[in-house]
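User: My instructor asked us to take a sequence, write out its structure as tokens, and then describe one feature of it. I'm not sure where to start. Here is the sequence I was given:
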Amino acid sequence: MIRKRLVNLAQLSAVGATGYYIGQYTQKPQEINENRLVVDGKIIKSLPGLPIFGTVSAATPFTEGGNSKDRISQIMKYGFPSLDNVRSYEDFVLSYDRRNRVPNWVFEHLTKDHVAKNDQVDRSKCDFKPDESIHPFFRSQNSDYKGSGFDRGHMAAAGNHRLAQKHVEQTFYLTNMAPQVGEGFNRHAWNKLEKHVRKLTRVYDNVYCCTGPLYLPRKEVDGKSYVRYQVIGANTVAVPTHFYKVVVGETADGTLDMEAYVMPNQKIPDETPVTSFMVPPETIERAAGLLFFDKLQRNKLTRINGRKV
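Assistant: Let's start with the prediction itself. The structure tokens for your sequence are:
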């Protein structure tokens, strides 16, 4: 009986050892170089800003024509803040928040050419419309905004995408919108910040901009802090308490500067300077649960919010 048990144990050990060594030599990724790996005999290429085994099923060109994949790689050169429901359009990339029916973040890459006046592009011909590639359960509609008192606020600004009519039209998809206070905010203070970002293209060859909503806590009369925000329409579109922008400017010689802003979603006096809304970028990351420009080490930056690093 003991001898039979020993034989069985030896057989099991042999099978286990064989499986271990097979796994080591057939399943373990073997490094070829920094951009290519071999797994199970297949070559896997690392894409810019994506983990080697990461997949973003929705990050495909929104329309056909042109080399859209190269453009997406250019926009996301310094990494994705998150990989939740990523959707790529021809000139910007966003992560869609299906629960709140607004973006988590929207990423843009701007140059002088992108923001220059173009007589072939007419914003007045653009219509706000739902993105039908979003499941109906999670889609916002124009009817949600009607009579709500809030503007359909662009995250990727229409004025940032003047290379082609199709580019500016895609900024009017409701996936790129969030409810914003109109008078004193969307049409004034927020617009001023968008213009400031466009002006940065006069200083930097490349400007990378990430924009999105925040839902920040507030201490109430009972001394406790709560996160409270309004929802609008039949689809309960969330009204953010604040909005952020994190911007990186890149010069021809590789100098990199960062600016980070948080604005409350409320009427703001016209005389308030844009710089008064500057905040440390890590405070936005903690509040939003995102990591901005994670492929760019902060010690590579020359300045953050105008101060030397």
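For the description part of your assignment, you could build on this observation: Helices lie at 2-26, 68-75, 112-115, 142-145, 165-170, 182-186, 189-199, 281-288. Try explaining in your own words what that tells you about the chain.
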